[in-house]
Amino acid sequence: METRLLDYLQRILNSRVYDVAIESPLELAEKLSNRLGNKIWLKREDKQPVHSFKLRGAYNKMSRLTPAELERGVVCSSAGNHAQGVALSARQLGCQAHIVMPVTTPELKSDAVRALGAQVILCGDSYSDAYLHALELQKKHQYVFVHPFDDPDVIAGQGTVGMEILRQHQHPIHAVFVAIGGGGLISGVAAYIKAVRPEIKVIGVQMADSNAMLQSIESGHPVTLPDVGLFSDGTAVKLVGTETFRLTQELVDDFVTVDTDAVCAAIKDAFEDTRSILEPAGAMGIAGMKQFVAQQQLQGQDLVAITCGANMNFDRLRFVAERAEVGEEREALFAVTIPEERGSFKQFCEIVGQRSVTEFSYRICDEREAHVLVGLSIRNRSEVPEITDDFASRGFVALDLVDNDLAKDHLRYMVGGRSPLVGNERLYRFEFPERPGALMRFLSRMHPSWNISLFHYRNQGSDFGRILVGIQVPADELPDFQDFLATLGYRHVDETANPVYRLFLR
């Protein structure tokens, strides 16, 4: 292995990457450092011209092609970032690039590839499907195949990330955290670090639903996954490379697997320190580092996470924002059962108190019991048992839903429906200034003689909170109810005649 390391060291030192790549900064993440009790450094590969490290390996490979090979053109398969690296390199070198991308690739990435002048071919559901089609095109048209990870020149190009880290931070480093898809980045980074400063740990980070490298290491040979998760599309690889497997098996010290919620929380962490939005693969190093720090109880160490990409689709941001709080353990989600009787709702609100409510959903459905879905902001996971005990002390049964994927993915959006117990119900939308405690103040002003039969609220991060409320008001009390609305002081809209209400809720 020592001979191989020296070979890769020489390849990395002689890599031709800076015609297209920049030496990305190594930045101290001050807020994250303070929270974790370690110095956290971010290697900002998201700042590259194509917002990913991938152009390093692609250009290093393609810059070594002969004029005849460049004339024939190149082909590659990619989930997005390698595609942009190849396309930019092809434009720089004056050759035609044919890029096979999975149909699941975010439109942001495929549009960026087209903008660089490459031909985009969509095929298959994962990188591996696209890879097989690219090989067919290579054979048919005699293109040069530019592998996204399993090529010594590509690996060496990615290894310049490790070279820069050690040049930029010449003090002790405890560990470097690297996201793994096919293994090109971690192979190159580990090869350089272990050749120059072998005492530094190299930790691989994989998604729990796309952990082909970890399963391969545990099995002793490359393993093909039947399916991969697509949230982190940049690391959705069913089969790792032969060369990247060999290097990772020999050189990587440890592995961490992370889930979607943890990655969403890491995207938020990076935003709070850098004001940049990473894609899921780009935030995996941070997520793995946080988990490793907690597991090992590290304090006072210098840790580096490579933020390897920022090609995030805008329409994913809502999902990321919602799941980040759960991933960071800053939101607790409960299903609470309370007696369907006068005063229960007020008692429920008293228990919640001044805690910030992120979500509140209720629909009358039973004459004896009411079931409420409520999200509460918390400082850490240890508060959950305390909140559960508070509910229990009033006779309310609270079910912790933080780890319940069915609740997080579906039920929180489905609470409601028709009810046989909604006589005299009127439906209103309210708006109120969104500030701490505003929701509970709203609830406390509701007249006790009118029963709340439906309630829905979700904090959307806006300056105004929006609530949908069903209230049972006898016909002879409507004038008093109108007076109440006038004195309430909140903008409101009567939706009782809305056809959607009649179709799905009445």
From TrEMBL:
UniProt GO MF annotations: L-serine ammonia-lyase activity; pyridoxal phosphate binding; threonine deaminase activity
Pathway entry: Amino-acid biosynthesis; L-isoleucine biosynthesis; 2-oxobutanoate from L-threonine: step 1/1
Q: Which top EC class is given?
A: lyase
Q: What is its EC number?
A: 4.3.1.19
Write down the chemical reaction(s) this protein catalyses.
L-threonine = 2-oxobutanoate + NH4(+)
> What this chain does, per the record?
Catalyzes the anaerobic formation of alpha-ketobutyrate and ammonia from threonine in a two-step reaction. The first step involved a dehydration of threonine and a production of enamine intermediates (aminocrotonate), which tautomerizes to its imine form (iminobutyrate). Both intermediates are unstable and short-lived. The second step is the nonenzymatic hydrolysis of the enamine/imine intermediates to form 2-ketobutyrate and free ammonia. In the low water environment of the cell, the second step is accelerated by RidA.
Fill in the subunit field for this protein.
Homotetramer.
Protein name (Swiss-Prot/TrEMBL): L-threonine dehydratase
Recorded source organism is Gimesia algae
Q: Which gene encodes it?
A: ilvA
